[in-house]
Structure formats: C-alpha cells, structure tokens
Write a structure and sequence with these properties.
Blueprint lengths: L2 E7 L4 H8 L6 E7 L8 E4 L8 H12 L4 E8 L15 H25 L7 E6 L12 H24 L3 E6 L6 H8 L8 H9 L6 H10 L9 E4 H4 L3
Parallel strand pairs: 1-2, 1-4, 2-3, 4-5, 5-6, 6-7
Amino acid sequence: MGTSLIFISGASGGIGDALARTVPWDPARIVGISRSKPGAVDEHVEADLGDPSQWGKVRQAFQREIGTGEWDRVVFVHAAGNVDPIGFAREVDADAYQTNVLLNSAAPQVLGHHFLAATEGMSTPHYVVMLTSGAAKSVYPGWSSYGAAKAAVDQWVRNVGAEQDIRGGARVLSVAPGTVDTDMQAMLRDTSEEQFPKRQKFVDIHAEGKLTDPEQVARDIWSLLDRDLDNGAVVDLREVTNT
C-alpha cells in the first residue's frame, strides 16, 4: 500500500485538528495549513488565509508536495474559517469584516482552484472537501458574512463538481458538520443577543448536551469519501451518516 497525501487547512484547532488526528489511511503524509503549527501533522505551511498575499504559499505547497511522489490518493480538506466579527453588518469593525469575507468566501474558492490546477491530469484519486454550515441556508442576524460565505462555497462546489464530471478529475464535496463542540460554538454563546439575536439557540444546544464530538465528526467526514455521492454534492453530515 502506498502513501496518502492529505492537506488540511485550519488544522491547528477545532474540526481541522480532529481531521488531522483521525486520517484513516496509513501511511499518510499530512500537511497542515494554518497560522500556528498544528500538533498532528508532518508538515506545516504557515499562512494567514485571511490575507490574500499568503495564498501563494499554499499554491506552492500543493505543487511541491504533489510532485514529490506517487500517491495512493490526494485530498484537500478546507476546514479553516472564522465567525469573528459577530454583529450586524453596518456595526462591526470594517477591517475585521473584510478579513472574514476573504477568509470564509474567497480563500476556499482560490485555494480550491490552486489544488485543482496542481492535480490536473492526475490519475490518482483526488478529492476536495469544503466545510460548510447550515448558516448557508438559514438566516442568522449578526452572521451575515459567514452565512453568505458558506452559501458561496456551496455554489462553488456544485459548479466545480459539474466541471470535473465533464473534464474528469477531482471529486468535490461540501459538508455541513452540524453543531460541534469547538471554540466557535463557545464564541457564539459568549456573544450578546444584541449582536447575535439567536444566541439562545446555541446556549440551549450546549446545555442539553447536543454538541457533537469533533473527532467523531472528523471520522464521519472521512467516511464520506467512500460513499457514492454525486460530484459537487452539498450534504448535511447528520443526514448522510444516518442513511
């Protein structure tokens, strides 16, 4: 058995860290893309993905790593994201809002493009997995940039999946993991209702013990790569893992 090559953005925390810790293939070379060094990776690409000038580091890493060997599979999971700033669009800090839009909307599309370009013509199975959210379809005042970004990512996945079916190439998937016990959930609970009117919903989910374990979520995400899902599928993890 050969080696799998796995790229994970946001691997220093939350679901990204859990994904790095639960890669199901052995041996595997895991490349983490984040501002701070993750614990469970073989190689770290230090990059602030909210800064477009640093996206080129990731493109170079794709090209460098993919070209170093014969891989059993190559996977890019984009788990990086940030809900900050939470608040109404006209009221939050302008620079923070711009960074949120760049990180959550533009970065996944551009990095996905770079990965597809780096794997063009590859016969080895290769995959792009984007993490999305129910906020892509539901209205959450105070969460405008995050929800809009996830909707954009979902549409990118639908279109690119169709493109890959026409030309042949990567399998592309967008996964909403549900409510997971991460720092993001803690941030939502710590936000005032003035900034985030639906805060109580997330307080109740936590109080009722309904947050899911990040490592179980990560294992379920990995399992989707063995499922016969349409290329460009946008799925809710809670629905597909119960079928």
